[in-house]
Amino acid sequence: MGALPVFRWRLAPDGYATRRQLRALGLRPGGQDVAAQLERPRRRREPLIAYLYRIDQAKPVRPMTPARWAALARANTARRTCPECQRDAGYIIPPSLGMCATCAYPEQAAA
After folding, report:
1. Would you tell me which of 27, 38, 44, 64 could form a disulfide with 58, CB atoms 3.0–4.6 Å apart?
2. pLDDT band of 2, cuts 50, 70, 90
3. Is the pTM of this model over 0.85?
4. What angle do CA 77, 89, 106 make, to 5 degrees?
5. b/e per residue, 62-82, with b = 16+ CB within 10 A?
6. Residue 108 has what pLDDT?
7. What's the sign of the alpha-carbon dihedral 34, 54, 58, 40?
């Protein structure tokens, strides 16, 4: 990525898009290299950088299969299951606690 074209914020030409913009169009980069770079200046800090991809070389997003939906459901269930009490917390357990709020703060749960 040595000699990428660099554009200022909101001044990129048509035909380029970020990953999020591609996804909103139902596309994905599809293995292409970064085509350009977008820079947003900031005071007293380095600029924010966004990588741009060519829209004409993007590929359609792969559809979700039943197996992928099942794997995603299992992964989300694992993120909600407390390792201490083995119950579904009903929310994603924060990594900072490592357990549900009831197990992390038993004195507040009793009150």
Report:
1. 27
2. low
3. no
4. 145
5. eeeeeeeeeeeeeeeeeeeeb
6. 77
7. positive
